[in-house]
Amino acid sequence: MPSYYLAATLARLADEMVAFTLVLLVLERTDSPALAGLTGAAYALPAVVTGPLLGAWLDRTPYRRSALALNQAVLGVVMLSLLGVVGHSAHWLTPVLAAVAGATLPMVSGGFTSMLPSLVPQDRLARANSLEAASFGAATIAGPATAATISAMFSVETAVLVIALAATLSIVAITRLPALPRAVTDGEPFMASVIGGLAHLARTPRLRASTVTTTLLLGAMGILLITLPLHMESLGMPTSAAGYLWTALEVGSVTTALLLGRLQTRWRPEYVVMVSVAAYGLAMLTWPLVGSFAVLLLLAAVAGLLQGPTMPAMFAARQQYSPESLQGRVSTTAASLRVGTAALGQAAGGLLVPIIGTHKALLVVAIGLVAAAVLGRVAGVQTRESVLSRG
């Protein structure tokens, strides 16, 4: 498990640095919020298509380590290529290169997590889920903060080089992971396997509730990713200071994920997801009213504390409501939906923020989070047909 968490956290660190660093790199070299949003969207959108395919393949292959390593190799090469392209070549090349790196992105957000039920005994999964959330959180804490600090002290180009280095180190750690047997051995046709994973997500009400809420959560975060760097100007701060707000959010999130991990088993995981996301949105309603960066930093930490239970509960929902033979497909398909929605959020943010301003954009994000919880509750309503199919 130490090798697992090291490999997963390094991969996620590189990924978390990418989203923020791409925004800074494009804004610095082109001064175009629209291109910054489009590039972020291009990095994430391919996952909508590739996620279900990669998940079905992961459930059927013993070569998971090779797939995870390939993802990191592609990321490192693309980031180095972007150094020579952004601002020096036709604008369309930037999102195209980002899309190449994003094609295997579900491996980071879902491929690692899908291994947990095979690596950890059932009675230790709750603790493992908390540590897994801490892995995501640690990467999300260190990613934007590292990108912001390196960009401020050195340059955004140096931050790109650090991403390539983190990806390389992740490959080294991946080689120490155990080889796992295939989860599916019944010879089911590949496309039928893909459709099976999608169908399971769609027809399982409790899993559907969690998935809808967390998917829409990421859409709102996509808008926030574009909004925060531009909002820094109204506070008299450089755009890179937004990285510290993301850090404050994740410090709070990791704190409650670790402290409340065992307590969450007392409630159904989809309820924990919906309540924590709604609380996150309500806390964020205060952000547009703040004129001090220090106060906003404190409010971000408080919002993170409220959002912290979301990720462990999301993992628990996938594990409790899906058989082991579907873990790869469910994890990467749900991850692809989240990543794809985040991409759409970034693209929307790039177009929306220059029109309505950052204060109103923050309100849009806060209201969107509350709406995500409400729509998740609606999606989780068990229809008569689903009851009959289960019976």
From TrEMBL:
Membrane topology, from the record: Multi-pass membrane protein
Keyword entries, A-Z: Cell membrane, Membrane, Transmembrane, Transmembrane helix
PROSITE patterns recorded: MFS
Main location: membrane
Source organism of the structure: Kribbella pittospori
Major facilitator superfamily (MFS) profile domain span: 1-384
Entry's localization field: Cell membrane
Annotated Gene Ontology cellular component terms: plasma membrane
Protein name: MFS transporter
Taxon lineage: Bacteria, Bacillati, Actinomycetota, Actinomycetes, Propionibacteriales
A molecular function (GO) term: transmembrane transporter activity
Ranges that cross the membrane: 34-56, 68-86, 92-112, 133-154, 160-179, 209-230, 242-260, 362-380
Secretion signal, residue range per the UniProt entry: none
Key word Membrane present: yes
